[in-house]
Amino acid sequence: REALTAGHLVSVFSSDQRRRLARSRAIEDGLWESRGGAGMALVYQPKVDILSGQVTGVEALMRWHHPELGTVSPAEFVPVAERTRTIIPLGEWIIRETLNQQAEWRRKGLDLSVGINVSPAQLAAGAGGTPVMDILTDECDRLDLDRSMVELEITESLLPDRAAMDEVRTLADAGFHIVIDDFGRDHAALSLLAESPARTLKIDKGFVDNVVRNDRQVAIIRFITELAHGLGMRTVVEGIEDIRQLVAVAGCGCDVAQGYFYYRPMCGDRILGLKADA
Ligand code: C2E
Ligand code: MG
Ligand code: MG
Ligand code: MG
């Protein structure tokens, strides 16, 4: 029998699998090249207070132009960046870039809170690189920013991770505002929520999608909102795309909304155009 060669191995993959493999390889390589922010950009999506209609803050979202693949969605590349830990240098760039943008808006008369997505890999013990805490405190001190206006969005899946939550608690004690993102997607225990230092709960878009046709989704959103308020937390609903969804979640008592109905994510300069609304 012939020895199994690399050529044989390659031939057992279908052409579809080969294409996927080549793409994920190109993403990994590209992320390494872009780990310092090259080819990356941040866009900002406003969050709106439902009752007053005022913009209270923005969430920073990454955009990436890959040299060969073109635009790649964060839904595709963030999990790769987490697995390969490129998210650690990239995450540092995101924090510095966002806080500098926040300071620039303030110099131009627009005082907004900023939401930064922080991935579990950035909080893991021995993550390497500069600790998130040091990056945040350095930049806030240097730029004279109010730490409570810096919202760190961590996902619900982090709640059961004791070591990471200790780090989150340290960040909360230092004055940063903790937000739990995508709440309801991962079925974290409610007791973990009660113990967490988070001040805001972001209700997953999944509940909003069918809220107009499905009374059960309304019941869940109302329940989460009452729970959050009972724990002294504010709620944000994400993914509001039309007025009927907005009316439904407003009826549930949600405080803040984010979604295409109000604004799509936009570049930092365009945020200045919101000055009249804010
Ligand atoms: P996320 O943090 O839950 O962000 C919300 C996502 O929903 C964003 O997608 C946003 O553009 C999208 N969105 C907002 N309003 C609507 C709407 O009305 N309808 C619909 N269909 N979508 C809406 P995006 O920018 O593609 O980001 C996807 C995910 O990638 C984020 O989910 C977050 O988990 C991750 N991500 C994005 N930027 C960063 C970052 O800077 N750092 C880290 N660690 N993760 C990031
Ligand atoms: Mg988020
Ligand atoms: Mg979310
Ligand atoms: Mg998310």
Task: List the defining traits of the structure above.
globular, 9 strands, binds ligand C2E, eight-stranded mixed barrel, binds magnesium ion, 278 residues, alpha/beta, single chain
Compact overview of the structure:
With 278 residues, this protein is α/β, with parallel strands linked by helices. It has helices spanning 6-12, 15-33, 74-83, 87-107, 120-123, 132-143, 162-173, 190-195, 205-209, 215-230, 243-251, 268-271, and strands spanning 40-49, 55-66, 70-72, 113-117, 150-155, 177-183, 200-203, 234-238, 256-258.
Per DSSP, the total helix count is 12
Q: Got a strand count? A: 9
Report the β-strand fraction as a percent range.
15-25%
Q: How do the strands line up in the largest sheet?
A: 1-2-4-5-6-7-8-9
The termini sit apart by: 74 Å
Shape: globular
Present as ligands are: ligand C2E, magnesium ion
Topology as a string of helices (H) and strands (E): HHEEEHHEHHEHEHEHHEHEH
